[in-house]
Amino acid sequence: MDHLRRFETIRDYNTFNNNETRHPLVNVVDVSKASPRRASNMYFGFYTVFLKEVNCGDLRYGRHTYDYQEGTLVFIAPGQVIGGYDTSELYQPKGTALIFHADLLHGTSLGRHMHEYSFFGYQSNEALHLSERERKIVLECFAKIEYELEHGVDQHSKRLIVSNLELFLNYCVRFYDRQFITREHVHQGILERFEALLNRYFQTNKPQTLGLPSVAYCASELNLSAKYFGDLIKKETGQSAQAYIQAKVIDRAKDKIFDPDKTVSEIAYELGFKYPQHFSRLFKQRVGHSPLEYRSLN
To answer: Do the beta carbons of residue 23 and residue 10 sit within 8 Å?
Structure first.
């Protein structure tokens, strides 16, 4: 398990799985063609999407177990490392991998918007669990890309392949939105837990020692990745997790401002601001008045 396999190119991963390299920057890989192997850590220098076809039974998700028989999509961004199961036994891979290099996207609409597909930053326990109908749509998208690869490269190939990649990713956005709703019981109380976390944070001296609570800090405390947590909060509240934190900070500031014995600088430091002018700027943006104006008006 300590050994790290590095896949820098599409060809590297094709060779590892006994698949033909039909295009240097993209492929739909049938991993069942691979030889039996032992689990290892793997580094990917390109975007990778696994459609797991194995019957893996119950999966751990938070403190609960759920049965996913239909299939699971796992998204890996370039530069990420994933680990296999902690076992020395040989296993036969099964499923499909969609792999594409960032170089394929240069000069395309997808290339300009690729950062918006935040699920490439999710952890493996935040994977997309597909219904049977959704799985069929995913396989249809894969089939269209595979058709272009089998057709041979011509002047239309890149546009059609990238268009189908974008279609697939947009379907995944829809499916994740569905998962946030239908799996609400998994994340039940996430907003309440977020609120309680912020309340506890400001009741301690953490703002003075750690500064303002970050989205990454809150996500870690709630055992979620920052991107998945941010998307959950956006879906639940309509605003970003950062905006939600800022609103909580301003609410705390409003209470403190009515203490005439405290200066604006003291309030700023108590809330975790390194520089008082940053606090004053945020307060005016959110409230419409500077802290001193707000104090005098009220």
So the answer is: yes
Q: Are 186 and 61 in contact (CB under 8 A)?
A: yes
What Cα–Cα distance (Å) separates residue 34 from each residue in 13, 54, 76, 91, 298?
10, 14, 20, 10, 71
Domain-ending residue, one of 150, 182, 214: 182
- Please tell me the distance from the alpha carbon of residue 64 to that of residue 87, in angstroms, as a whole number: 23
- Give the length of the chain: 298
Rounded to two decimals, what is the model's pTM?
A: 0.79
The CATH number of the domain holding residue 108 is 2.60.120
* Beta-carbon contacts of residue 268 (< 8 Å; ≥ 6 apart): 275, 276, 278, 279, 280
DSSP state at residue 37: B
Q: Are residues 194 and 177 in the same domain?
A: no
Q: Which of 134, 157, 182 is the last residue of a domain?
A: 182
Residues 73 and 221 in one domain: no
Q: Residues 36, 132: one domain?
A: yes
Which amino acid appears at position 130 of this protein? L
> Is there a contact between 241 and 218 (Cβ–Cβ < 8 Å)?
yes
Q: How far apart are CA 30 and CA 27, in angstroms?
A: 10
User: In this predicted model, what pLDDT tens digit does every residue of 4-63 receive, in sequence order?
Assistant: 899 999 999 999 999 999 999 999 999 999 998 887 889 999 999 999 875 443 333 333
Locus of tokens 């994740």: 176
Q: Which range of residues forms the domain containing residue 292?
A: 190-297
Angle at 194 between CA 269 and CA 171, to 5 degrees: 125
Asked if 249 and 170 sit in the same domain, the reply is: no
Residue pair 9/45 in contact by the 8 Å Cβ criterion: yes
Let me know whether 74 and 214 are in one domain. no
